[in-house]
Write a structure and sequence with these properties.
Blueprint (H helix, E strand, L loop, with lengths): L1 H8 L3 H8 L3 H8 L7 H14 L5 H8 L4 E6 L3 H6 L1 H14 L5 E6 L3 H11 L6 E5 L7 H7 L4 E4 L10 E4 L1 H14 L5 E5 L5 H17 L5 E3 L4 H14 L5 E4 L2 H13 L9 E6 L12 E4 L2 H16 L8 E4 L2 E3 L5
Helix pairs in contact: 2-3, 2-4, 7-14, 10-11, 12-13
Amino acid sequence: MTMRRARQARPTLEEVAARAGVGRGTVSRVINGSPRVSAQAREAVLQAIDELGYVPNRAARTLVTRRTDTVALVVAESEQRLFDEPYFAGIIRGISSELNATGLQLLLALAQSPDEYARLEHYLTGQHVDGVLLTSLHGDDPLPAKLEASGVPTVLGGCPPGLSPVSYVDVDNRKGARLATEYLLEKGRRRIAAIAGPQDMGVGVDRLAGYRDALAAAGVPELVAYGDFSEGSGVTAAAELLDRAPDMDAVFAADDPMALGAMQVLHKAGLRIPDDVAVIGFEDSARAPLADPPLTTVHQSVENMGREMARLLIARIRGERVTDPVVILETHLVLRESA
């Protein structure tokens, strides 16, 4: 009996229309975000919805509009990486801030193994989401092309080698790495090592290329070790570099966590930063100014990257014409005591 009364008390679309003084179709158009409603009628409907506490039937709305009001963010990394590294938190904050005003909900999905990817692909192409954002992709990942082929608007954060996505957002990684290396050369450093990121990721390739551009122009030999953008890999790579070249006088790391890992190794080896070895990272994360000494780094606006990814996806979901489907954000060097 109580349940029946509760159901009867739930406001209907017709009651909203009567309260607003408009037709049922007008209420439906307002709820579904149609532009074919006057500002006066829209305001009356929204006020009636607020006064009555009307909650649209999302399942019915999805059947009519083919919209779920949900977008997925796919991160091709482990859960530990996602929560340990500040880069991902920044991306998510940026995406969320852009989605807040749209009513779109964000679904976070992690995928590593082929089986996980297969299940995720089946879900994402099954009309469960309106669009997909992907970041931290490795290699020639087939998922973006499969999503687009299935009619699911997709925007990438970064562009892996071998892919030609419809739309993506990145920073000028090559230029940022070149600026960092050129700065070290200007300071008289000549044994400049690089801790590069994975070479199956566009960001890893481009930052290594920028480092090499600067050294080639100066006629200085390169010295490279590889990591996976984690702090632990920075520790391993720095130890390898010290073993191979104990006379190195600078380290450019392709992200801040690897730079912080390198600083740990240098401290343990009794080397002074920056007197003996200068260190530069890439990202300008929240940990950079707290390092010992504070870390010189290439600034990239991770939150802005997330906002731009969401902005492009929203436009594509709405069917708007996107004049610039590829956005490349500028970087700049932030000088601190480590270099």
